[in-house]
Design goal:
The chain is an alpha+beta fold and 119 residues long. Helix content is 55%, strand content 18%. The protein folds into 2 domains: 40 residues; 45 residues, no CATH class. It has a 3-stranded antiparallel sheet with strand order 1-2-3, with no helix packed on it. Strand 2 and strand 3 form a beta hairpin. The N and C termini lie far apart (92 Å).
């Protein structure tokens, strides 16, 4: 009887310790999840109002109009990653400089008046 009681107590203590470790790990994971949620919620981007945006676009337009061809090319190369021409479509991959690392792609149809697609 004493041997069975010891086996029972050992098994009980092992399960109890395992349960305690699982609870502790669950608390750690919940804390990590909350920290990540806070970090992600802090990354929200505040958009400028339309008047500010129009002002910046107008300033940029004036700057580019007064720039040399080399300066214009350099500006375009600063955010255009790739231009891929396939038949009558152009795939334009670019990074917007104001949003760190945000990449985007647009597909445009080349007008029928363009005979060689710029190549």
């Amino acid at each position: 009887m004493c041997q069975q009681w010891r086996l029972f107590l050992v098994a009980f203590l092992m399960r109890y310790c395992a349960l305690q470790r699982l609870r502790q790990r669950q608390e750690q994971l919940n804390a990590a999840r909350l920290e990540l949620e806070n970090l992600l919620s802090d990354r929200k981007v505040e958009l400028a109002d339309m008047e500010t945006l129009k002002s910046h676009v107008e300033d940029l337009r004036n700057l580019l109009e007064d720039s040399s061809l080399a300066e214009r090319k350099s500006f375009i190369k600063s955010f255009i990653r790739e231009v891929r021409v396939t038949g009558t479509e152009v795939l334009l991959s670019y990074n917007i400089p104001l949003s760190a690392g945000a990449a985007s792609q647009d597909t445009l149809v080349v007008p029928s008046t363009v005979q060689y697609g710029g190549q």
